[in-house]
Structure formats: structure tokens, C-alpha cells
């Protein structure tokens, strides 16, 4: 069982509590901005006095609503997000004053056009590559455009000083979260991958950033102490797994639990449910807009072409987390991660000499049996 702050018994409880919290914030006049992606420069949203809430759908439930408007063979994350919006089942969507999206994958950017018919959405245009001077200039302009939209929508001024403060605060949060994720570097790990994933997702519904940080710091300290006292001198023969690819919150039970119940430990997440965005801090010493531009342009998602930073991260993480095997999770119809998987497999097996398993799945339970068989076959090799 995952341990969450006092009044939360589990993830569902945390989500329900979150509804009341966001309602209370609205009643106090705090603006709410719905977001969908790791490329969103959250610091600008916080500097506008708003809270940012992730609207990425992680449930199969609303997908049949989405399929009234969207093709069946589309990524489940996109369908779930849209399904929640049109079925009015998501209080977070309901309370959002503004949505912010980015032109990442084709499915998401076209879905934003449909969402715009229900709720105002500002779409940031993301360059397709990172290492060109004009990509920096272009993305910087997009950050300034978002800043203007936030100022106008919420009738505030985002000053340089406020932005610098938010950058510092968000960096502090990133360090605390990285410390938590890096518990997986301990061998044996004092925490399961499912608990890491569930804790981070549930805390996202808290909105009180200070208590989120306090909770994570306390939990990290407890687990480090547990490692020192009970685990340090023990040896585990459970293989250590790194998860890479698409976000995995929507397949926690189907994929992550199956891996751990089959006898392996998930110790690292190279994806947007894990450390992808958190590994690099925002430079606090330069112009804040330049610093945010640089930081977010360098997020290593497969929508970038080429995408060398993802391979640098994999290289580093496979060594630092002492990985025995890599499992790539690709959500159905996610073309960019799907195509990039060819090079990821080559990199993992030929350069790092580690076993690799590719799993393509959706949010349904239809392929549970097949998933079990494939995961067990990989674990037998380790
Ligand atoms: S930065 S991973 S959060 S885009 S899985 S919707 S890419 S078809 S979620 Fe993502 Fe931002 Fe990238 Fe991260 Fe499209 Fe693929 Fe679906 Fe995806």
C-alpha cells in the first residue's frame, strides 16, 4: 500500500480530495490552468498567480465518449483526456479557466482544435528540433506569447522578479522530487516502482506545493533510513528494470504491477511520468525567459527530431541505477515513440548490452494475459 499524506488512503482518495481542493481554490479566486505536457513552462503559470493542473487522461473509462469524435486507432492518452473533457466527468477540466497545450504529436495538436470549442486553449508552437539557433529564438517568442496571454487573461503582470522567484521555487521542488526518484539507485531499492509512480501522481492532486514537498522530503528521509538500517547489507536477486517511452500512469496496474509481481524491481523511469523533465534545472543566473526557453526546449521527448538527449539520459541512467533490463512502454498509435523504439532497442542491446522488451499497449485490460507472458519471458532471461 502506498503511503500518502494523512487523509489520503490511496490514489483514488487523493484524486477525490483534489476535486474539493481545486473547488476551494476557485472559490478563493485562484485561477486554474489545465496543462497536458512536460513542455509547458509551469513557472510562467505560477508567476501569473495561477495553479497548473494536469489534464492528461489516464483512464479507459471516458474513451468511448472520445471515440464519437476521434478515430479509434489514436493514442489512449489523447482519447482519455478528450473523453473526460466532453463527458464533463472531470472536475479539473470543469474548473480550468484556460488550457495550455503544445504542438507536440499530431494527435494532441489536432485534439486541441476540438477542445477549443469547449474551453479556451492557448497552443504553444514547439520547434521540431533542439540544436538550431532559430529553434531557440522561435521557442523564446512562444514563451513570451504565453506570458502575454496569461497576463491578459488573469489581469496580472508577470515581473522579472516574480518569475525569478518561481524559477527558484520550482528548481527546489525538482531537487526534492529527484531525491525521491533517486532512491531507486540504492541497491536493493527501498521503494517499489509502483509506489514511486502512484505517490507522484497522487500528490499532483494536492495543489499545496509546500505540503507536497514536505511529504516527499519526509518519505525520502524515512526510506533512506530504512535502507541504512535494514537493507544495506542485504542482497536482492530481483532484476532491476528501467522503464522508458510514453507516460505510464494509465497502465500502472497492467504493466508496472505485472512487472513487480512477476519478481522484478522497477527502479528507474526515463519518461514523462518519471525524471525526463526533472533531471535538468532552470539556470537561475541568466535572463529568466532565456533560461526557461533553454530548459524546456531541451526536454528529450520523441517528438523532437533528432532526439539525442534521450539517448544521453538512457546511457547515464542504465549505469547509475545499475539496470539489468529495459522495458519500453509505447502507447498504441504513438508514432514518434514507436519509430524511435528501433534506435532505443539498438542502443540498449548493442551499446549497453542489456536485454530490452518493447510493449505497445492501451488503457484497456484486453491484453493482460499477453502482457504477463511477455514480461515473464523477459524476466527469465535476466
Ligand atoms: S513531452 S511524452 S507529455 S508529448 S503518448 S500524446 S506523444 S501519441 S504524452 Fe507526451 Fe509531452 Fe512528449 Fe512527455 Fe502523443 Fe505519444 Fe500519445 Fe504522448
Automatic annotation (TrEMBL):
Belongs to the FldB/FldC dehydratase alpha/beta subunit family. Coiled coil: none annotated. Its cofactor is [4Fe-4S] cluster. InterPro entries: FldB/FldC_alpha/beta, YjiM-like. This is Benzoyl-CoA reductase/2-hydroxyglutaryl-CoA dehydratase subunit BcrC/BadD/HgdB. PANTHER family: 2-HYDROXYGLUTARYL-COA DEHYDRATASE, D-COMPONENT-RELATED (PTHR30548), DEHYDRATASE SUBUNIT YJIM-RELATED (PTHR30548:SF6). GO terms for molecular function: hydro-lyase activity. It comes from Keratinibaculum paraultunense.
